[in-house]
Design a protein that fits this description.
Two copies of one chain form a homodimer.
Chain A: H1 8-15, H2 19-25, H3 34-47, H4 53-60, E1 65-70, H5 77-91, E2 95-100, H6 106-115, E3 120-124, H7 130-139, E4 143-146, E5 156-160, H8 162-175, E6 181-185, H9 191-206, E7 213-216, H10 221-231, E8 240-243, H11 246-259, E9 269-274, E10 287-290, H12 293-310, E11 317-320, E12 323-325
Chain A binds a DNA duplex (16 and 16 nucleotides) through helix 2 and helix 4.
Chain lengths: 338, 338
DNA sequence: TTGAAAGCGCTAACAA
DNA sequence: TTGTTAGCGCTTTCAA
């Protein structure tokens, strides 16, 4: 087997130039003559030279690695985010180092990230432990929370306007003539779920309605299904349900239609939040609030790279507008809501 | 701002030992006394030392980075794979470097991977260009194709038994009394789609049936929907459809039921392949062939790491058994198929 | 513009 | 078991 790693020195030798000349030829914006660059590239080509990003990272202190922490990919919203985030970062010359939280092991995962000298961290996972936020701050590694925030730490975040989205949903249901309106939450400690609920309750209050019932679905299909059953256990069932995200709403709709024999929206309206692709599928046709996924990703990348490249760690909290998407799963008001 | 990077020399100085003693203390299985390790860890703790994985990778030639190339995450099968693969690799001390193919730019993406000195590559994307396979071979970087194979290159691969899965589906439909059985393919150049079709046709032939019709869905919802419409354009429509994967099948079912007013399985049976979570949703209740996702991931990791760790690049092609999952989208035979 | 030289933080011989 | 020493492949001064 021939020598498998070609180094800049090998190229330099062949091109009869110094090793640093090779380095410069591969550094955009370095001071090299065209002639030099041509010679170097020719030699590099001949040898199949490829700069070693690890060595470059080591000496320059810039790994161009961004850690992406995700908790679970069941909810289709996250794969979409992952895909777009990865593309956006690649386009700017960064690579994504993926990390799945193993729930308990969040801290050790962050250790691993920092060991790899990532230049920034995107957390699209549950909640950020404050130990962890402190650790990142200590190393000066920028962190952006995606689709959640944590007021107890000075960490940047990007969310959609969950409060306003929840509020609009409340108006829609109230104006649609519903009176027993229930909510199925994600997690109690999820800022996203809390905000959606808060906005929803505010919207109901504005229409003089109380929240009729409330259960926690835990962001899982099984949890949501159980919550739905409980909701219909008593003598007076709800006539509308707001489910904290689309992923849970599908499970809820399945229970309502198959197990309870209800028709949607005739017997009960269902609305949710995210607008994942499945929400548009004919079988669900779910009225929901669309998260501006692409804009959220762009904002995340912009904030993160601003901090990475300027090494200025100033907190930013982007809240992007969400948009109500009317489909067939909820009875509509006679006239559009005011 | 205090010095932000703590090195092994800093720890050594504080612990009054040599720098290599620090290195050893952090290397599992190195020859260090308990006493030494204790002192080193104490000092490390005090300073907040964290070994630099980049420097380690550089000197040892082992980055512990595995590149994962994915094309699109629309099909929910891939996020699931991604999640499991990432966990499996993390558990073995490797990290996943994510790459999304931008279709045309597959080659440059592989350049990037190699620049980062990844120790292995998993390709869960369309097809592998042979240029690219050659390049990887040249650097001695092991590659495993996930859920596809390429007979023209000596690259390892992991798939489920697509031939047999297709065959069983054919038997199921034939024995269920269908006679006009159609197929909606993924891509013509996808080994997976080709094998499923080949097995399917074989199974039909074994029951004395021809393939009634055939269209290409291109693995997208829109493509599949269009294919479904075309299928029902003529005067004699099919009475059963095998769709190359679940993701397309959902779109097909939506078209059949909503646009064409057909009932499933009464008017037409639909079967597919993958068994993504949505296939079990009440609204689709899709009869499908389950890919053994976890086993496929395990096999991929095993083959890849075997090659990585033994530096022996011998081709392996794992074909794992798939399992028919009977649900409500296809009319069943009176008696189980023989 | 170019080359020489000094490391980045670490592991891995080799001695002691 | 421990310390000394020599790099890994590269970027970045500093002189020329």
């Amino acid at each position: 087997m021939p020598k498998v790693t070609v180094t800049s020195s090998d190229v330099a030798r062949l091109a009869r130039v110094s090793q640093s000349a090779v380095s410069r030829s591969f550094s955009p914006g370095a001071s090299v003559s065209d002639e030099m660059r041509r010679r170097v590239f020719a030699a590099a080509q001949e040898l199949g030279y490829r700069p070693n990003a690890i060595a470059r990272a080591m000496i320059s202190g810039r790994s161009r690695l961004i850690a992406l922490l995700v908790a679970y990919l069941d909810n289709h919203f996250y794969p979409l985010v992952l895909e777009q985030m990865s593309r956006a970062l690649q386009a700017r010359g960064y690579q994504v180092l993926m990390f799945m939280t193993d729930l308990g092991s969040q801290d050790s995962v962050v250790q691993k990230m920092l060991q790899y000298q990532v230049e920034g961290i995107v957390m699209a996972s549950a909640t950020l432990s404050s130990t962890l936020a402190r650790e990142c701050a200590a190393t000066g590694t920028p962190v952006v929370l995606f689709n959640r925030y944590d007021p107890s730490t000075p960490t940047s975040s990007v969310t959609s306007d969950n409060l306003e989205g929840g509020r609009q949903l409340a108006h829609l249901l109230a104006d649609g003539g519903h009176s027993r309106i229930a909510f199925i939450a994600g997690h109690e400690d999820s800022s996203t779920s809390r905000d959606r609920e808060a906005g929803f309750c505010k919207g109901l209050a504005e229409r003089g309605l109380p929240l009729f019932a409330r259960h926690v679905g835990g962001y899982t299909s099984a949890g949501a299904a159980a919550a739905a059953r409980t909701l219909f256990d008593g003598r007076t069932p709800p006539d509308a349900i707001f489910v904290a995200n689309d992923h849970m709403a599908f499970a809820v709709m399945d229970v309502l239609r198959r197990d309870l024999g209800l028709r949607i929206p005739r017997d009960v309206s269902v609305v949710a939040y995210d607008d994942v692709p499945e929400a548009a599928w004919a079988a669900y046709d779910l009225t929901t609030v669309a998260q501006p996924c692409e804009a959220m990703v762009e904002a995340t990348v912009a904030i993160l790279l601003e901090q990475v490249e300027q090494r200025a760690v100033q907190r930013r909290a982007a809240v992007l507008p969400a948009r109500l998407v009317l489909r067939g799963s909820a009875r509509l008001p006679e006239k559009p809501a005011g």
